[in-house]
Amino acid sequence: MSVKKNFASRLSLYVLLISAGLMLFVSVVFGLFVRSAVRKSAVQLTQKELDNAILDIEKVITEVERAVDNVDWIVEQHRDDEAMVCQVPRELVSANPNIVGSTVAFEPGAFKGRPYFAPFTYVDATSGEIRSIQMGGADYDYPMLDWYQIPKLLGRPYWSEPYYDEGGGEQRMSTYSMPLKDETGAIYGILTADISLEWLSDLVRSIKPYEHSYTLMVGRNGAYIAHPDSAKVLNETVFTSALEMRDTTAMTIARHLLAGERGMLRFDNDGTDSFAVFAPLSNGWALALICSDMDIFRNAYVVNFVLGALLLLGLLGLFFGCRRIVRRQTMPIVEFSNAALTIAKGNFKARIPEVSTRDELLTLRNSLDYMQRSINDYIAELKSTTASNERYESELSIARDIQMSMLPKAFELKGNCDFYAMVQPAREVGGDLYDFIEAGGSLYFLVGDVSGKGVPAALFMAITRAAFRFIGALGLPMAEVMRRVNNCLCDGNQNEMFVTIFAGKIDLKTGRMDYCNAGHNPILVVHPDGKAAYLRARPNLAAGLFENFPYQDETIDLEPGTRLVLYTDGVTEAEQADKKQFGEDRLLEWAAGLTPDASAKAAVIDLYARVKRFTDGADQNDDITLLSVLWNPATKTIQE
Amino acid sequence: MNVIINEEGEKALVKLEGRIDTTNADQFMKDITPLLNGAHTEIDMDCADMEYTSSQGLRMFLMLQKNVASRGAKLVLRNMRPHVKEVFDITGFSHIITIL
Is the pLDDT of residue A437 over 60? Predict the structure, then answer.
């Protein structure tokens, strides 16, 4: 089952999405917080490392400076004692492991009038022996060199910029030079101490709080004194490096370094997010420690990864747990659904599952229960109604049989008179009727149509038929028969029921027909020559309405071969589906096209078929009655 | 079937619209009940828009006519369409109900 179709999965997914969103938010906030805290502690750590390194370096520098300061007075007191003066640099070098070379260089002529006097003691880089030489000469005019000139001009001690000592030590060195002054303050020489910078590189290289962090040291002019890439030392400056970088922050850091400031700055170290902490040394040099974010956040990244993995696991657990709980909680819904389906399939007694909770599920269960009971009640009622309807229909069916049996079915030839009739009620029982009676040498016949339909009409039809049958048998004149039938129908007719009747009386000897029309449709007369016309009789009034209404009859002599067609308005008003009616014209047309020697029965059946063809299956909306009389037919027709 | 009754004092002006057949004859009876309470001395029915009446409808007109006649009031049907008038003529109802 897909997630979309499964309620539990869908709900769990929503919970999961919301939880994931919340957790993501918390993680981001937490991550940012952790990042900030980690960076803060990293900066503190690196600054501390840097400060410790500076302390170490300052210690060396101070020791060198102090050692030089301490021997200053020896030179001063034994200015003319060559042995003592030569002893001073030797003492400095041998007593101080940091000092790899030392000299006492006198102003030209200041030592016993000699143009140069500079005893130099140094540690031989290859053998490690301490050696002493005299410097100075035409090829080494030391008073013109920086290490001599600058402190002399400044009048105070000076640390030289680092340099590569090609003459003796073959190493990177820096020289501390102190002017020697006499009682008057005049400078008569310079006392120097050289220190190797190799140990400085080692020390700087050892400052490595993080795997990829590195430390560099620059001199006053920005030249690298120490750098992880030793090729850069003394060959490049911090400015040339900064110029090659995209991030201009590097240049700012370089300026801060040279300005002797302390601080921290973040910058893009050629594609690596990094930060630098920097601090100055007392002699104008400066140290900078550079760390990448990757390094300092490594642990944070691990923590974040573990946290993320845990959250993911938690979310998965939440999803499955939630789905399981929802599925269990909604299980009754599935059961209800199954029960409802069972009920829908017709098992109305299906058991609806019980629920133990007092919540919406109980409400749903009660609703289902109520529905089931309502359906069962309804079905019981329906059964009873159906039974009652069946009884009613059965009674109606019997009533129809009774009604149909009231109408004569045996059509015997009466003298020269052939006749036939039929009734087709629109419902089980109807209000149309026809009848024949032979009395006093005449044939009395009628066609009637009771107002309305169904059972009331059928009852009134029965009364009409009984009245005609009784009164017609008396052999009275036509008008009198109608008057008596009318009075009979008016008796107790509170519902204003009425019946339209066309009744006729044919003298079976002469063919003279007396007829009386009580509000009925005009009848058709088809003459022997085939011409058909409506017999527009005096309408009088439908029977059953006014007692003692003066019905009047009329008379027509029938020529042999004359055909009469009586009908009710169920014929002329027979409707097609589009409400088009059969009408008097179509009836007349049918009559004109009738075979002259067709029997009364054939004519009736043909007309009925014609009407049915016309309505073409549309519901019959009124009773149809047809009656035909053929007077003295040219060809005798045998009646069934 | 619509029956619209306007009263002008003791005169009722009635307008009939549509068909009266088996399906709505009872409703038509209810609709004209206000005319049977004897309040009107003259009932004038405009039948111009009456399309058809079945024999059930004729019964209603007859009841109304008898009710009106019994208290000496007048019932008049006007502007009847020819094929509707024909039903009244054939059944002889034209004799007992005034059709103008």
Answer: yes
Percent of chain A at pLDDT > 90 equals 27
Is some CB atom of chain B closer than 8 A to the CB atom of A449?
yes
**Which of A447, A450, A451 should one mutate to test binding to chain B, selecting the residue with the greatest count of B CBs within 10 A?**
A451
Q: pLDDT category, A329, cuts 50, 70, 90?
A: confident
> Nearest residue on chain B to A521, judged by CA atoms?
B90
In terms of residues, how long is chain B? 100
Residue from B90, B93, B94, B96 to probe the interface with A (highest A Cβ count within 10 Å): B90
**Is the pLDDT reported for residue A636 higher than 60?**
no
Q: Are A541 and B91 within 8 A, CB to CB?
A: yes
Pick from B22, B62, B92: which is nearest to A496 by CB?
B62
Contacts of B62 in chain A (CB under 8 A): 496, 498, 545
What's the pLDDT tens digit per position in A86-141? 888 998 998 888 888 899 999 988 888 888 889 999 888 778 888 888 888 888 88
For B30-36, the CB contacts below 8 A with 24+ separation are B31/B1, B31/B3, B32/B3, B32/B60, B32/B64, B34/B5, B35/B5, B35/B64, B35/B67, B36/B63, B36/B64, B36/B67
Q: What is the pLDDT of residue A169?
A: 58
Query: Measuring CA to CA, how many Å separate A208 from each of A54, A174, A213, A318, B33?
Result: 14, 24, 6, 45, 114
What number is the average pLDDT over the span A452-472? 91
CATH number of the domain enclosing B21: 3.30.750.24
Number of domains within chain B:
1
B62–A contact, CB cutoff 8 A: yes
pLDDT range class, residue A242, cuts 50, 70, 90: confident
Closest residue, chain B, to A522 (C-alpha): B90
Angle between helices B25-32 and B55-70 (to 10 degrees): 20
- Residue B93 CB contacts under 8 Å (≥ 6 apart), including other chains: A519, A541, A542, B58, B61, B62, B87
What residue segments make up the domains of chain A, in order of their start? 78-196, 354-406, 407-631
Beta strands in chain B (DSSP E): 2-8, 11-20, 42-53, 74-78, 98-99
pLDDT value at residue A639: 43
Residue A262: pLDDT over 70:
yes
**Helices and strands in chain A: count of H runs, count of E runs:** 14, 22
For A266-294, what is the mean pLDDT? 87
Q: Is the ipTM of this complex over 0.90?
A: no
pLDDT tens digit string along A139-195?
888 888 888 888 999 888 988 888 887 765 567 888 899 999 888 888 999 999 988
Residues from chain B that touch A546, judged by Cβ atoms under 8 A, are 96
The answer to whether the Cβ–Cβ distance between A539 and B58 falls below 8 Å is no
Residues of A in contact with B95 (CB under 8 A): 539, 541
What top-level class would CATH report for the domain A78-196? alpha beta
Which pTM was predicted?
0.54
Q: Which residues span the domain enclosing B59?
A: 2-99
Q: Which of A617, A534, A622, A528 lies closest to A571, judged by CA?
A: A622
Please state the separation of Cα B78 from the chain's center in Å: 10
Q: Topology of domain A407-631, per CATH?
A: Phosphatase 2c; domain 1 (3.60.40)
> How many C-beta atoms surround the C-beta of residue A131 within 10 A?
14
Spell out where A386-477 has E strands. 417-424, 432-439, 442-450
Mean predicted confidence (pLDDT) in A187-213: 86
User: Is A518 in Cβ contact with B90 (below 8 Å)?
Assistant: no
